[in-house]
Amino acid sequence: KPGEMDLSYRSTISIYKSILEQFNPALENLVYLGNNYLRAFHALSKAAEVYFKAIEKIGERALQSSTSHVLGEILMQMSDTQRLLSSDLQVVAQTFHVDLLQHMEKNSKMDVQFISVSKQYELEYRRKANNLEKCTAELWRMERARDKNVREMKENVMRLRSEMQAFLSNSQREAELEEKRRYRFLAEKHQMLYNTLLQFYSRARGMIQTKAPQWKEQLEASRNPSNSHVQGLLASSHGQGYPSGRLTPTHLETVRSTWAAFTVVVAKAALGLGGLTCGPQNPGPTACRGMGFPTCGWEPWWQLNSSHAGGLFWGGC
Amino acid sequence: KPGEMDLSYRSTISIYKSILEQFNPALENLVYLGNNYLRAFHALSKAAEVYFKAIEKIGERALQSSTSHVLGEILMQMSDTQRLLSSDLQVVAQTFHVDLLQHMEKNSKMDVQFISVSKQYELEYRRKANNLEKCTAELWRMERARDKNVREMKENVMRLRSEMQAFLSNSQREAELEEKRRYRFLAEKHQMLYNTLLQFYSRARGMIQTKAPQWKEQLEASRNPSNSHVQGLLASSHGQGYPSGRLTPTHLETVRSTWAAFTVVVAKAALGLGGLTCGPQNPGPTACRGMGFPTCGWEPWWQLNSSHAGGLFWGGC
């Protein structure tokens, strides 16, 4: 079966060629791209760190305010959580760097030696092929000369041929195996990367799942002024004899009404104290408001002014 | 309570100052840092895309090999999974961009107008304070002149004073509220970001959890040649009368034994066919090996040669 032998030889050679000329350069390129990837990752980590450091500083300022203290705590926790996530993600990057890129780089460098395997195979093949050819020619010569050793030589040629077949199929199998090892190496390394990512995603998920409901609750609580520090202060102020009704519009309401583009019910709230030289309390038009304290549902000042009527700007009360 | 009034006034003014001079510039800075963050994120996405595109190409090549076909499929799936994760992560980036950064930027720009609120408060405070002072002086004058309107003026001053107190405490409360709104805005926006991240982590985790066991199984199966295509081919070859014993060492083994630094049991496998001119089959020293096919547990060639004896280079059989 010389055609089959030839096919096996060509297939083996083409596998070695593919390992040396395609797989190995592709692996080198992958190491290069992986290092770019890693650089981009570190740049992102740095950017995230700086961003959440800024959040932390804003949080620190909020901590100093008695009314926004809780929000400061939440912002600080959000920054802390990011720091934990980031250091967890560093583990993934470390895996990628040490277990993938460095290993891939080392292997691609060592695999340059693999060319000798390919050359050795070619030499071995040629030697065997020559030997077989030589013996076949010798057999042919012996048969024509009716040599008494012809039977022995026939056996010899038969053996050489089956050895050649075994050599070719074993070599092909090993070449395929070498190729397979390399692809598997790549697949297994990336399976490891995905496992590390999976661990990261699971931890990250758990971390946020622990924090998020707490933040949500605290944020909702901070929307309700009845729970807040301010309300407590105001209540105690009222207890000390402050007027419980709202006697004067605050300056924010003055601003609101001055800027309001739509018609509002307006009342001039002049003091009307005849005979006194002291000026009127409210020189401008003032929107009528209920006398009770609106404890919640206040709209921020800009809502009357901004184009986002109905939407929230800073949101909430 | 002039001291208390003064305290309230100063506190209100300092909150406005803090919003305008600290919070707002900090928010602007955060938008700037966030845009850097986003740029770094997109650079990372791009790097990841290029990296996994290269993996995909290697996978495509493996697909063309009959023996490494499954590994090619795994590599392609790994690349696909990364693409899905990446497009999922784009949703997080989009949230960050549209719902956080753009909103933060808009608010920080609109909030520049907030200075008028602060100025309005100062004007209003001065007007009220002047009025109160004027009336108090008038009352004092009236009392000295035993004016008949003194009782009316006393009531007027009392009313102005309590109005002033209400104005101050309401204004302080509103200033605190404005401050709180801003901190809460920031906290709520980042809570939203964390929720989006949580969704991403959950999906990513689910995605890898679905794929990983499958990959692991396929990779393990690919380690066992009895399941592989090659083994099937070899078996059928044997069925067609190929020698089932290993008659000749493959070239890889020749390389191995030639390079081996340690002593190996060596046998000269000369053909020893007296009277024949055909050369010996094995010119060099060859390691003795069992005649049976080693179906698994083959060590790669470099293991004898590399400094990593015992460790795996490409690994596996």
From TrEMBL, chains A, B:
GO biological process, one term: actin crosslink formation
Limits of the IMD domain: 1-238
Coiled-coil segments: 118-170
Pfam annotation, one family: IMD
Region (Disordered): 222-244
Alphabetical list of PANTHER family matching this protein: BRAIN-SPECIFIC ANGIOGENESIS INHIBITOR 1-ASSOCIATED PROTEIN 2, BRAIN-SPECIFIC ANGIOGENESIS INHIBITOR 1-ASSOCIATED PROTEIN 2-LIKE PROTEIN 2
Name used for this protein in its record: BAR/IMD domain containing adaptor protein 2 like 2
Organism: Coturnix japonica
Gene transcribed to yield this protein: BAIAP2L2
